[in-house]
Amino acid sequence: MASGQARLRGPVRIVGAGLLGASLGLALRARNIDVILADASPSTLALAIDYGAGRKAEPGDAPELIVVCVPPDVTAVTVAAELANYPEALVTDVASVKLAPLAELRAMGADLTRYIGSHPMAGRERGGAVSARADLFDGRPWVIAGHDKISYRRAAPLESLVLDLGAIPIEMDAADHDASVALVSHVPQVVASLLAARLVGASDSAVALAGQALRDTTRIASSAPELWVQILAANSASVVEILQEYRQDLDAVIEALASPTANGARRTIADTIAGGNAGVTRIPGKHGQALHFSQLMIKVSDSPGELARLLTEIGAAGVNMEDLRLEHSPGAQFGLAEISVLPQAELALAAELAAGGWEIVGATA
Amino acid sequence: MASGQARLRGPVRIVGAGLLGASLGLALRARNIDVILADASPSTLALAIDYGAGRKAEPGDAPELIVVCVPPDVTAVTVAAELANYPEALVTDVASVKLAPLAELRAMGADLTRYIGSHPMAGRERGGAVSARADLFDGRPWVIAGHDKISYRRAAPLESLVLDLGAIPIEMDAADHDASVALVSHVPQVVASLLAARLVGASDSAVALAGQALRDTTRIASSAPELWVQILAANSASVVEILQEYRQDLDAVIEALASPTANGARRTIADTIAGGNAGVTRIPGKHGQALHFSQLMIKVSDSPGELARLLTEIGAAGVNMEDLRLEHSPGAQFGLAEISVLPQAELALAAELAAGGWEIVGATA
């Protein structure tokens, strides 16, 4: 999260208290900005308020900014209602597609001088306020999709929001946005889902051989169908264009593998893998994230209370543990605790733990 | 690594001192087994010896077991040479395909009564002795591909090797092995490479939006073309069969997305994502075990010692914690501890913790 005085005055009204809405609320509350939460489901709303993501709406609320965090299919109609109900507020949305809501709002005759779409490139496999995190947007790109009906000045509160959250504002029109996310998000979803679907009829002995490669390539295949039908349908033109190119390449590989000794077949296969090598180098590193933690790997013997003892000692050392992951292999006599701490705390903690008899088997910056 | 006395007496001769050969050498040396290293490249050999993965061959060496760790294209010819040079030794290989080397050896008239293929399901994106790890095989499945020419008794040193390394022996014939790895490893490689290749011509602003989803789905696309041409060509029949089914599903998605408002189009898209959901559930947990754990999500307040107190109480309840993941959001006043336990322990533990005042905010089976 960015430091210093918040740019937004608030209040900020958030409509839809799922993962994104509740995370947004937590992050803004942490900056002492008044957050008004609304959700079609009273229980979802109550949960997000319990989590500290904001308060209920009250008569007379005059939000500076309204952020609509609802599924793509109902984004335009929700934005239109908010524009009508709060005639002073700037309204944005965070849907994964940007052309469709803008076109729908135009068709409805909504006041586009107070609407600007946006899209934070942040999310998690698990949804709901229960998975919300105040640091979800930290260092992440956040697309601001301008259009010809809104002035730069009127859109200012959205840029303030993005900067207050420590995210990186990226200006891009709706068409460029939709083509870009088709490539980096929507097509990968289709490709991963189709791959994972091949496992449905597989034998137990085959899936028993699965390793990290399969887990990584299919991780996003556990995403929710309801949401993805909306996203893919709303961005179908861009997605289809890329999938058709993908299919051409796939056909070439299938043809080469069907006759692997034919002239040029090995060349085609090599070009496919080499093309992937070249593509991967285009992906920016994790340097988008504002905070980097250091990890210490500590050997923890497989006897009761050992991990608790380790955590007690870390607490006693006055070090704030940012994350903890336990690797525990049933065949081994010990587990590995991966402790994430701020880089400046790493050396002192390592020294303290080593002095206490803990074996540090690795460290990554 | 498994505990107790090593089953192998040694020496073990390792031919090929790359990632797998050097890792094998490190793991065996850690168990005080004499390791003889050989490599076609003197500098690769010297590096692996420097790393402590074994020693040079000497006249009169009489290895109990020879492990051939060379690329698939030269596996059979290397195995045949080792069988001829060491007439007392059992010879195995670790190539990613098993039918092709066996067929080549048969065609060469090699002594199959002393050869048995195998395949450890372990690896890293980075190759070479410099990336070797003694724990590379720890808890990983290791396929032993028996055939009708070798006796159970003659193959015993291979099983000893697998168990000494703490890996999990899985018996499977060469055809089953090749079909299985086509599904869990070779097709994912093709799919990831083709996806990553789509990024080559992408704009900088598009790839700037890339997140963890794209990074995960394309991570293995950085693998070496030379090696993968050999693997894919050697297992082409199994790979093509799965890629053709994949293409059928892809065609259906492209057709649906080309006319997203047509009858049944949204159903096809939803089925695609849901099929991926179902496929992902087939993948066993992290340690290659068939065991499924239940998860309890427990609220842990953000004050020192709270997590240690929770873990102490879980230990006092007599429950063995299989894994632990801490979700900690800087903005929230509490973290979530995700505790993995055996399913039969879940209810009792939940009751115990609730009685102790802990708030359980979720559970997943």
What does this structure look like?
The structure is a homodimer of 365-residue chains. The first copy, chain A, is of the alpha/beta class and 365 residues long. Chain A has 3 domains: 12-172, NAD(P)-binding Rossmann-like Domain (Rossmann fold, 3-Layer(aba) Sandwich), CATH 3.40.50.720; 178-280, 6-phosphogluconate dehydrogenase C-terminal fold (Orthogonal Bundle); 292-364, Alpha-Beta Plaits, CATH 3.30.70. In chain A, 43% of the residues lie in helices and 16% in strands. In chain A, the strands form 3 sheets. In chain A, strands 3-2-1-4-5 form a 5-stranded parallel sheet, sandwiched between helices. In chain A, strands 10-11-9-12 form a 4-stranded antiparallel sheet. Chain A has a 3-stranded mixed sheet with strand order 6-7-8, with helices on one face. Chain A is flat. Chain A starts with 11 loop residues before the first strand and ends with a strand. Residues 286-291 of chain A have low confidence and may be disordered. The interface between A and B is large, with 124 and 127 residues.
Series of secondary-structure elements of chain A, N-terminal to C-terminal: EHEHEEHEHEEHEHHHHHHEHEEHE
Q: Taking Cα atoms only, what radius of gyration of chain A do you get, to the nearest Å? A: 24 Å
Number of alpha- plus pi-helical segments of chain A? 13
Named CATH architecture of the largest domain in chain A: 3-Layer(aba) Sandwich
- Roughly how much helix do the residues of chain A carry, as a percent range? 40-55%
* Main sheet specs of chain A: 5 strands, parallel
Give the helix/strand class of chain A. Answer: alpha/beta
Output the strand order for the largest sheet of chain A.
3-2-1-4-5
Uncertain ranges of chain A: 286-291
Number of strands of chain A: 12
What is the 3D shape of chain A? flat
Question: How is the quaternary structure best described?
Answer: homodimer
State the distance separating the first and last CA atoms of chain A. 20 Å
Report the β-strand fraction of chain A as a percent range.
15-25%
What CATH first level of the largest domain in chain A would be assigned?
Alpha Beta
CATH T-level fold name of the largest domain in chain A: Rossmann fold
